Amino acid sequence: MATFKNFFATRWGIIGVGVFIGILAPLLQKWGNPGNMGICVACFDRDIAGALGLHRAALVQYMRPEIIGFVLGSFFAAYAFKEFRPRAGSAPIARFVLGIFAMIGALVFLGCPWRALLRLAAGDWNAILGLLGLVSGVWIGTRFLKGGYNLGRSQRTHTSVGWILPLITAGFLLMMLLDPQVEGQGRSNVLFYSLKGPGSMHAPIAVSLAVGLGVGILAQRSRFCTMGAIRDLILFRQAHLFLGIVGLAVAAFVTNLVLGQFRPGFAGQPVAHTMHMWNFAGMALAGLAFALAGGCPGRQLFLAGEGDGDAAIFVSGMIIGAAFAHNFGLASSPAGVGPNGILAVLIGFAVCLAIGFTMRKSV
Amino acid sequence: MGTIVDARGLSCPQPVLITLEEMKKVAGGELVVLVDTDTSKENIIRAAASQGWTATDIVPEGQGYRITIRK
Deepest in the core among A82, A90, A147, B21, taking most CB within 10 A? Predict the structure, then answer.
């Protein structure tokens, strides 16, 4: 039996990575990030869309260094362990659209799967509806996978293609350093910076970047994926990745208790609403889109870092989806769903189901 | 020489899905699985073990690996 040379591919490896994220995310909150949002890939991609001015929701504009760290950490790890594989060409436009609706669904719930776990671990019971929705969406995705759904093969491509998203994120970091926030100003030369709301709450740049890089490296090594955790359990009865998200949730719960950040209840939770039906449906849409695209938002960043150009397209779709969500009134707020959020979820389901039904076999 | 499952270029979880399908079809003997990422390599080894198959040989080939599994 061949054993794993890669410790992080073992059972204790994936649990360790989950625990690492579960401890650091609540700490990031303590160091300045928004409530129950130590790390949220969807929210942070949305903040980046805001920092770039792609949407003008003044409360959620910040160039989140965690996201930059995720991509660059994975990039460095992939090179260090000779796993960098430039590849692209598996139905990119379908992945772009899946990215858009994944983000719209996540912003109806207000969080990616990581944040759903972090919210749960902090006592936000609305997350239970979101997680049930996520499982339902992923379950629908597994029915398509069983029926032969796939987006076709990617092809090996130029090394420089695999460098594009890492270079873009490095460029974002440079912009942030050269164009820092000016006290009391909502916009520096180029970048937008929130003066209040979640976008104004952040840990120091160096701390955010360091945690991002650390998580990026470990997640690349361990293949940590929240969607895959649920999918593999449903599809193969295999709990490997699931142990990772259990590790995350348990560690975050304990860390929140220690830090005094555990406050159980439905009402008055930070950056959350209590419309159960739409917490469920938003995340179900997101889960279906993640399953059809082969990874949760975090995993797509790590894949993009190791050279997967199709994952980079999904990430681009998420950023554009965030812009749509805030420009068109689709994103929820603590008051509830946006004016057009419900319609967008219904359209998203129609589009994702169409993708699932029409893109089959012939690999 | 066993059957060859070409899983190169496929996203998760397709490499595992088509390998499991082939395992069911042949029921035993030897299978060769071609993959192009380390993630897929690990997933194939893990899936094989869960079905009582053993990865007997893993050699780099092209940009990926040729994995031989037996039962």
Answer: A90
Asked, for residue A245, whether it belongs to a domain, the answer is: yes
Q: What is the pLDDT of residues A303-332, one digit of tens each?
A: 999 999 999 999 999 999 999 999 999 999
Please name each of the domains of chain B with its CATH number.
3-70 (3.30.110.40)
Task: Judge whether residue A20 has pLDDT over 70.
Answer: yes
Q: How far is A236 from chain B (nearest CA, A)?
A: 8
Using CA atoms, how far apart are residues A109 and A331, in angstroms rounded to an integer? 8
Length of chain A: 363
Show residues of chain A in contact with B52, CB under 8 Å. none
Instruction: Give how many domains chain A has, as a whole number.
Output: 1
Contact (CB, 8 A) for A49 and A55: yes
DSSP secondary structure, A340-357, as one string:
THHHHHHHHHHHHHHHHH
CA distances from B10 to A55, A117, A172 (A): 34, 29, 30
Q: Search chain A and give the residue with CA nearest B62.
A: A156
